[in-house]
Amino acid sequence: MNVRRLIPTAALAGAVALGATALTACSGAAAGTGSKDGKVGVTASFYPLQYLAEQIGKDHVKVDTLTKPGVEPHDLEITPKQAVRLSGADVVLYLKSLQPAVDKAVAQAGVKNTVDAATLTTLASHGASGHDHGAEPGHSEEGHAHEEGDEHAEEAHGHSQGEAGQDPHVWLDPAKYAEIAKGVGAALEKADPGHAADYRKNTDELVAKLAALDTEFKDGLTNTASKTFITTHSAFGYLAERYGLDQESISGVDPQSEPSPARMKELQAFAKQENVSTVFFETLASDKTAKVLAADTGLKTDVLDPLEGITDKSQGADYFEVMRSNLKNLQKALGSK
Question: How far apart are CA 32 and CA 63, in angstroms?
Answer without folding.
Answer: 12
